[in-house]
Amino acid sequence: MVLMLANREVPNTELANQHKIKLSPDGRDRLNRDGLLRTRTETRPYVHQITEEGISWCVQDLVEGEPPSRSGPLARAYAELLRRIVRYHQQRGTLVEAIRSGDLESLIRAVYLDLSVKPQDWVRLAKLRPRLNGADKDEVDKVLLGMIKTGKVHLAPDSNRKVLTDADHAAAIRIGSEDKHLLAIEES
Question: Between β-strands 173-175 and 178-180, what pairing exists: parallel, antiparallel or unpaired?
């Protein structure tokens, strides 16, 4: 469920430190074998991402699962409310959108950290945008414009126009009369 809500690759350390989840090697291997999870083991820490099959399993569990046996009346009421909300969105075809509608700024920051080599590194918007789970360009632009108002997020044009690809031009954000192709985020 945590990986489904994160909607991005999540390092082992984040699972352990922020969510108190320890994914054992046997459990991880079984989830990968069953096609519910994809784990990148070529780097340390390992990085996990839920698959579409994993999301389907979670949704089925939300609809058909029961709260823990020792749950009180409030937990059972919450479980029933969640079950109804999930069914409602399933019937309308909006469930995946509802699940994946997390905080776009947090996703931008996480993808930036993954792509940057060092702190405050310049990252191409053309590399960042494809990893934002299909977020609309206008929506991403609006969030980026809000982020630069903090003074810790910077957008800049690529001064070497000859190296710009079609992807760079398509991913650029126009501010004033200038296209910005690069993003840098200061550590907070």
Answer: antiparallel
Asked whether the beta carbons of 71 and 60 are under 8 A apart, the reply is no
How big is the CA angle at 61 (ends 94 and 15), to the nearest 5 degrees? 90
Q: Structure pTM?
A: 0.56
pLDDT in tens, 19-34: 899 999 999 999 999 9
173 contacts 144 by C-beta, under 8 angstroms: yes
Backbone angles phi, psi at 15, to 5 degrees: -60, -45
104 contact partners, CB below 8 Å, separation of at least 6: 132, 135, 139, 140, 143
The residue whose two tokens read 């399993």 is: 57
Q: What's the CA gap between 150 and 129, in Å, rounded?
A: 21
Pairing status of strand 123-124 against strand 37-40: unpaired
**How many helices and strands in the chain, by DSSP H and E?**
10, 8
Beta-bridge partner residues of 151: none
DSSP state of 123: E
